[in-house]
Structure formats: structure tokens, C-alpha cells
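Dear Dr. L.,

I hope this message finds you well. Following up on our conversation about the binding site, I have prepared a predicted three-dimensional model of the protein together with pyridoxal-5'-phosphate. For your records, I am including the exact sequence and ligand specification that went into the calculation, followed by the C-alpha cells. Please feel free to forward this to your student if that is useful.
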Amino acid sequence: MSEPLYLAPRLEPRLAALLDSPAFLHPLVTALGSPLNIVLPDQIADNVRGFRDVYARHRLTGRIFFAHKANRSSALVRRLAATGPEAAVGIDVASLGELQHALGGGLTPNRIVATGPKDPDYLWLAARTRTTVAVDSPAELTALAALVERFRLPRVPVLPRLSEFTAPGTRVLTRRSRFGTPADDAGALLDLAEKHQGSVEFTGVSYHLDTMGLAEKAVALEGCLRVLDEARRRGLRPRGLDIGGGFGVDYLADGAQWERYTTELTRALLGRRAPLTWEGHGYGLRGENGTLRGALGVYPGHRPVAGPRYLDELLAQTAPSLGRPLATLLLENLYDLHTEPGRALTDQCGLTLARVLEVRVTAAGERLVRLAANARDIGLEDHGLLLDPVLVPGAPEEPGRGGPPVGVYLLGNLCLESDLISRRLVFLEREPRPGDLLAFANTAGYFMDFTADHALHQPIARKVAVYRSGEDGPWSWCLDEQYWPHLTAGDDE
Ligand SMILES: *Cc1c(COP(=O)(O)O)cnc(C)c1O
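The resulting structure of the complex is given below.
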């Protein structure tokens, strides 16, 4: 075989230690089945601290709202509820179910922001509990005000969501979105906020752009500042702005592996080396008569500026038309800065385990590894994240029974041609054996339960919360829904 092309996951100490505990992981899968999702609630508390440090460095106040949609876990939500100081940590919910879940997990309404598409039930519960509503449109603001009046509720805080910003004098503008009110129409929103002052309290504005582009986000942030200025001229009293999520995660341990892999992938698609993908799949690229066409549509797995560091760089950006650092402008106006990280707060917060069922070699020499899990349980491929699983041996490794490295395709458990957990050749240090586990690391953000379903009556993964007392105490576990923060020793704030 040619040289293995690894894409090793970045593992921080907690997740690495867990992966290095086969004697703990195997009985869990025996008891609870494959696939199995594991979440690490204490990690999310550490991640919050990473964001808070950036706030402190820029002397900014405001709340870090975890975007709940990244993971359905109860343990993560409850652990966040226990994370202090209370004023700094909250949750962004995007459905009635998520709002109920957050309230039930101990987050009080002052720590919740309700975003996403709303139906009357969702809007009513948000209004009744005085949860801040990121209203999506003038019509939604009107509907909310009507509910407040009809049920004689106290004023509800609102943080209208804006989109489609432009910067005067520059050519950068933000992408279109199906959510939010175009910034050019903010005047109409402010008119309504003034008109309904008895039922809604205009606390500021928000945006969420599904992009990593710093320049685009700087335009949006500045656009919000301009709307807040206008609001103050009208006598409204905005207190801050919410810049949404999209801080990203650095998934790969080694940037050089990523460079090498993408180079070899293009060579393979041009027919200049042995195939690296199933049936010539190109992740958006294709070779045509010796020329590469299309664009590589994968998540940039190696992303050193991600999470808190990305926030830090955004705040240091110069406002495109005001010409001064964004952090300075926020500070001078005494505005709170709110953020809604989803993926970035779930970084290193969990993994997905799948049992190896069968290893088969085709007539063409391809090695197929069938797992007790499918591509909906492990959403990496669907999201274009190319990341190797970690082999968790079923039996203690005997000396000499390791290697040599092999390249394999990972097949799922659905009776469906397309059910491949990887359409690329995945390199492992040795051939897996039935009874081994493959651990997909860092799946807690969107890859764990976002698309899992009961197709073919296959089981969906159970989820367990895993924690330990101290740095190297024994691991403990419970079902995700049984986790409550008092189980964890650390009051770490
Ligand atoms: C999805 C979403 C987020 C989180 O995005 P990430 O990329 O996971 O950080 C934040 N805010 C809103 C409104 C969202 O829809």
C-alpha cells in the first residue's frame, strides 16, 4: 500500500484521556449498544471560560449564549446552567422544544434568547416567561406585542435580528439570509419598537451569519452599531448587541496532514495516483481530461483561528467605515456584547463510538469495514468534515499484532448503497477486527444527534454523560438525561 494519509483529530487532554480508556469504553457499548454517544459536560464549562477570557481581555461585558441546536444533550445544558458567573452564561434556543428544555434544565429566562423560526406556541411561552426574543421581522414584533397585550404580560425584551448589511464606501456586503430583517429596513422595526413600548422593551439588535469571513462579520457588527445609534437618537435605550455564532472549530491535530491530504486527493481525482475515494467521489471536485473542475466542498478541518481566538480577532478588526477597532467602539458606547457560539462551545465535548462488525476485501482489493452505526448517526461525511476515527482495541494489543497500516472504507448498517460513513479511504494504524470500536472524536457539535433517525428500525445512539473527579480520578457515567450538575465534584468558577 502507498503511504498512509492520516487526518488525525485534535484531542485535548480530557478527550484524549477518555479515548485512552478502552476498559471503560467497551463495557459501555456492551451495555448500551452501538452506536453510543458520549458527552463531557465539564468540557463545555471549560470552553465557556475560554470565551470569557476574551471578553475580559477586551474589557467587555455581555453574555455567552450556547446555541442549543448543536446538540440535544440535557447534560450539556444543565452543566451550563451551573456555570457562573450567571450573568455571563446563557443559552440560545431555536424552537419551542429547546426553550422548554432550557427552562427545565435550570436556565432562568433572563439567561435565554429565543431565536429561529417561531410559531405561536413558541412565541407565547417566550413571552409568558419574559425570555428575550430575537424577533425575525416587523410582523413577528407586532405579533409578540399583540400577545403581551392580550395576556396582560409584563414587557418582553426584544433583540431584533438584522441581516444583509452593507458598509458605506466599501464593497463588502454580507450574504443573503432567509432570517432577519434587512438592515436597510431597520427603521420600520424601530418605528414598531417605539409604538409598542408598553409591551416590548428594545434592548438591542442581533445578527447571525453562517460564515467564517471576518470582513463580512465586521461589516455586520458595524451595521448593528449604526442601528443602535439611530435607536438612541429616537430615545430608545438599547444596551447591547448579539453577534450570533459561527466561530468555528479546529478539528485536525496537524495542518501538514491536511495540506498533504488535499494535494493527494486532487492527484487521485486526476488519475495520477491510486484512488482515495469511493467510486471517484470528489467532494465537489472532478477531473476532466487532466484538468480539475469544481470546488472542494468540505469543512476546512484545519483552522487554527477558531473559537475564542476567532472572537478575539473579530474584535480587533477595524470597523470598515468608522475606522476604529470594533472592541473600542463597543466599549466607548458601553454596549454589552452577546455571542451565540454553538459548534465552538461543543469543541472537545464528546465522541461517538461504533462497533466493528465485519471486515471484507473486495475482488478489486478494497477493504470494507462495516460498523454498527450509519451515516446519519455519524454526520461527519454529510457535513464534509474529513476526520479519522480512533481505534479502541477490543482486546489488549499483543506485541507484534499491530500494523501494518491499512486504508479502509467505512460502511454503515443501512440496507442502502449510499450508506457510507466515509466516502474516502480512511487510514488506520492496523486493520480493525470485529469487536474493536471506532471512536469518532469531537462529534458533539452537530455530528452526534442532528440527523440520527430510526430508518430501518435501526437503533439511534443512546447518550451518556461522562465525568471524573479531579484531573485523573476514575471515570463515571450516567445516561445523559440522568445527569445533574451536583454529580460533578468541581465548583470550578
Ligand atoms: C446555528 C446558530 C448559531 C450557532 O452557530 P455555530 O456556527 O454553531 O456557532 C447561533 N445563532 C443562531 C441564530 C443560529 O441559528
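In brief: The chain has two domains: 13-40+348-487, 41-248+302-338.

With kind regards,
A. P.
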